[in-house]
Amino acid sequence: MTTLRLAIVGAGPAGIYAADIARKTDHAIDLSIDLFERLPAPYGLVRYGVAPDHPRIKGIIGALREVLDGGAVRLFGNVEYGTDITLADLQRHYHAVIFATGASGDADLDVPGVHLPGSYGAADFVSWYDGHPDVPRTWPLTAREVAVIGNGNVALDVARILAKHVDDLMPTEVPDNVVAGLTASPVTDVHVFGRRGPAQVKFTPLELRELGEVPDVDMVVHDEDFDYDEASRLAIATNKQVLVIDRVLQQWRTRQVGAASRRLHLHFWARPTEFVAGDDGAVAAIRWERTEPDGQGGARGTGEFREQAVQAVYRAVGYFGSPLPDLPFDAGRGILPNHEGQVVDAEGGIVPGVYATGWIKRGPVGLIGHTKSDAMETVHHVLTDAGLWWSPQAPAESAVTDLLDSRGVRYTTVEGWHALDRHEIALGEPAGRARVKVVPRDEMLAASLG
Known about the structure:
The protein contains 16 helices and 18 strands. By secondary structure, the protein is an alpha/beta fold. The chain folds into two domains: 2-104 and 321-411, Rossmann fold, CATH 3.40.50.720; 106-318, FAD/NAD(P)-binding domain (3-Layer(bba) Sandwich). Strand 12 and strand 13 (299-309) form a beta hairpin. The two termini are 39 Å apart.
């Protein structure tokens, strides 16, 4: 039986699914798999990209945990690729590596004023309210009126967290520093802008329903946005998801508003054209162009411009991947260039032993569940590409731990994650909360390593 030492960089859903699929695939290969994660805790965007009031979505952690607890995969947390372990190190100790590092940065939005004080990337804000250890502990929540740009699930998450009263977040795992920040927020109005119409949105019915269930927040929609064209009517008639979204929005059109202390406004057919600075040089308003259907499912400008006073703007127009040391990178798409997960160089030639899966492979599209089929394609190539594998000089499992120990890397393991998990749950018990997420990296390591 052939032995394959496989490294996977990134212990989010993409990396863990790839490990699980590889070990379950029927093949004549003896697999030894190591997962490397730069954070002390696993699960990637499930832990640091899903809003804390989404327990149903976070339930996927149970399936991921089963893989890690199965004993067939080793986890090395708090290990930074390119610093603690390099591509040359991986070539010395493994036959192949799958990169599953995801996409955690914000995609660009090319409008004047985008870099003004008060203009924020949604990915950074999500990392803050999810307790990511690499972002500041505080967030400047000083605006009474806020704009959110985008019509995807992240935009709705950001809008909901901004509009929601902090007391309604307390049963969740929201970190203490986030509780303090949101408690002091003076926000009264959150405006969500999307350049297309209600029948072309990218968020899911579940996200939309949850938005309308937030206590003491009025949902404000505008009748002018519901003058549907033929393409929109066809989408509603033929797509169940679009039908449900339309039903929810139509119900909101008949709601009484005015009694709540906060309001969440949905603006469709609205393309942001400028973030306007005030006398202090910071964001004071958002200028936008009214759009209309172009007959192809898209939108075109009408030449009618409007302005909304806001003191902060959150850009939720998509995630974007980051380059990795010693690897090719497609800067236009934010991915490792690849053919079905086989990483390729600038000339299109296959890079031996190097693979990709998840958002770093295909870009930030699709829900978490899509990473399974994505991983299957990549893993198939890994297992059938024996002729492209590296020839490691030191493939013994102990050689990797010896390497990390020699460099003084304070790496965490599955057992360490369990210790941190128990610690966070214990922190939440006195207040009847699911857990209180630990934020500072040194405190995470202290709980993990003892």
